[in-house]
Amino acid sequence: MMKENCVINPRTKRAVRKGTKTYNKIKHLLNETQESSKSVQVNMSVIKNIKSVAPEIIQAQPISKTKSRSIARVSSSAKTAKTAKTAKTASPPAPKTISVKKVTPLKSSQSSKIRAVNYLKKIVRRKIIDNKIGEDENAGNKIVALVKRRLQPRYKPVSILPDKSDTKPPPPKDDTLLIDNVKVLQTFLKKKLIKDRYSLKNRIAFTKYVEEKIKSIPHGECAKPYTFNDGTKGFTIKNIIFLNKIIGTPSAYGKIYLSSIKNSFGGFAMVAKMMRETSDNLSEIRIMKTITNKLVSTGNSKHFIINVGSFQCKSKTENKPNERLLAINELAHGDLKMAVNDYEIYSKEEVMINMYLQIIIAIATFQIQTSHYHNDCHWGNFLYQRNNDVGWYKYIFNGNIFYLKSCGLNMCIYDYGLARKIPKAKIPIMSRYLIGDFHRISLAFITKNYNGWNDNDIPEDVVATAMNVKSFLTSNATLAKTNDGSFKKRDSVFQYIYDYVFPAIFSDYPNVITTQTPDNVINKDAFII
Ligand SMILES: Nc1ncnc2c1ncn2[C@@H]1O[C@H](COP(=O)(O)OP(=O)(O)OP(=O)(O)O)[C@@H](O)[C@H]1O
Ligand SMILES: [Mg+2]
To answer: Which atom of ligand 1 lies nearest, measured to the CA of 414?
Structure first.
């Protein structure tokens, strides 16, 4: 038997006297072991009591620093949920999808992995909300480093006590549990989501990932009202997509919700546009889908917002008329109105010119590749995404190759609710609509004193460039061509702009746009117009 002032060193089997370093170490480890075995017991009892708790309640637990604290949190929320549920009915509700198997991670060493996964979700969500991703080129590395630090044990385990788990075979692997894939997830986050999240390649990868997550939801599904843990109200579709919070200004046509996908590691990475089931809105979704498949997913253009899916509520009774149609779209960092009212952007001449050129390219690509005119080119219908691309983007238009420098903002054309098709035969008489798209958005780059929309002190040469384009488009020369039906093909209008407007811009802004091949071209296969 151990004397009070001694402990037995299990490795050497010798007594160690009180007051020595080794004594303290052994005592400390003995205490740790007792504590953790107590925790496991408590944990088991908690698990027995939470069969009826919805899975998201367990998954949504914030990560805690110590085992015992995490148990306390799970336990209290389990209790709350249980009380809330049992208050209405005497008998406990039938177990939902949750099974004991689903919560087993909490009783094994896998709990730390679950916490890690939740931790990953939490920081990614926070970064995305803060719009920090995309601004910090090291965000990926930093997050992975943070997570690694978090996963490191507090002290180096010493094999001083026999470890029971060493003698047991490892628990069977359960592929349904994400916890087995922490490493894979880290790599995925680093490579695909965080680092250069908004490069075209990663935009495509991320939306494919979300597409997989939502593909089980039937197209006719309706959005159901949902109250979040913090009391805010939104909607959910099959408890997979959550419409959390309205962004942008709700209009007669629709509401835009910042949305999250269950178990997706991008957190709040999507938007859901909730609309009426009108032919314009249905057409908007159709055009977006076609553009996503033909232009963006193929890497042919980066100037469109990706659509990952849509839902058209089948039930006649379930939703209000303006809640029946949903488009799930990629998230942007803001719209053009916000951009040109942001001092950090509007004060920089080359950034403004760059954005303006991207918008002209986006409109041209839209008109030429879809045979539509947009018909609603106001500054709320162009969205921007921040990215970390460095170098020059290559474009090709009717055999002409040119390069546009990356400026950290990718401009996308969006909202095709009022877009109309122009049949080839009608181009000569309808070309003024094509011209109108370019003309209208130029006003975002022109100050109010010149009848533009912009109220800021934007660089004079930006205003001058946009005014030149605008007056060229309303000049007698252009009018004459419009009236005599000279614009015969889908690309005639942009060809005209390219031939007469672009040369001056090439020479005024060689550091923004050039026909000379630069050293660092970002995309080997040119974007098409
Ligand atoms: N994918 C997105 N990412 C970020 N913000 C978005 C996104 N989609 C829409 N918004 C914001 O919501 C606003 C309104 O969106 P949208 O154009 O789809 O609605 P709308 O009802 O058609 O508006 P309007 O009739 O004024 O054109 C946009 O101007 C933009 O600020
Ligand atoms: Mg709009």
So the answer is: 17
Question: Ligand 2: distance of its center to the CA of 458 in Å?
Answer: 24
Q: Which ligand is nearest to the CA of 249?
A: 1
270 Cβ below 6 A of ligand 1: no
- Tokens 């934007």 identify what position? 458
Could you tell me where in the chain the CATH 3.30.200.20 domains are found? 217-331
For 273, phi then psi, to 5°, come to: -100, 115
Provide the 3-class DSSP secondary structure of residue 390.
coil
Phi, psi for 252 (deg, rounded to 5): -60, -30
C-alpha–C-alpha distance, residues 200 and 198, integer Å: 6
- Ligand that lies nearest to the alpha carbon of residue 335, given by its number in the listed order: 1
- The pLDDT-based confidence of 15 (bands split at 50, 70, 90) is confident
Q: Is the dihedral of CA 12, 14, 19, 24 positive or negative?
A: positive
In 113-126, which positions are buried (b, 16+ CB within 10 angstroms) versus exposed (e)? Answer: bbbbbbbbbebbbe
Which of the listed residues 283, 383, 418 should we mutate to test ligand 1's pocket, taking the one with most ligand atoms within 8 A of CB? 383
Domain at 217-331, CATH homologous superfamily:
Phosphorylase Kinase; domain 1 (3.30.200.20)
* Residue 230 alpha carbon to ligand 1 centre in Å: 26
What's the one-letter identity of residue 282? L
Please give the structure tokens belonging to residue 491: 């690309």
Of the candidate ranges 69-83, 189-203, 248-262, 355-369, the one whose mean pLDDT is the lowest: 69-83
β-partners of residue 224 are: 236
101/106 Cα distance (integer angstroms): 10
Q: Whose CA is nearest to atom 23 of ligand 1?
A: 251
Q: What is the mean pLDDT of residues 335-345?
A: 97
Assigned fold of 335-529: Transferase(Phosphotransferase); domain 1 (1.10.510)
Q: How far is the CA of 252 from the centre of ligand 2 (A)?
A: 10
- Which two structure tokens, joined as six digits, stand for 304? 């469109």
Q: Which residues contact 68 (CB under 8 A, 6 or more apart)?
A: 35, 39, 42
Which ligand is nearest to the Cα of residue 281, counting in written order? 1
In the chain, which residues fall in CATH 1.10.510? Answer: 335-529
Q: Which of 424, 405, 442, 436 is nearest to 491 (CA)?
A: 424
Asked if the model's pLDDT at residue 244 lies above 90, the reply is: yes
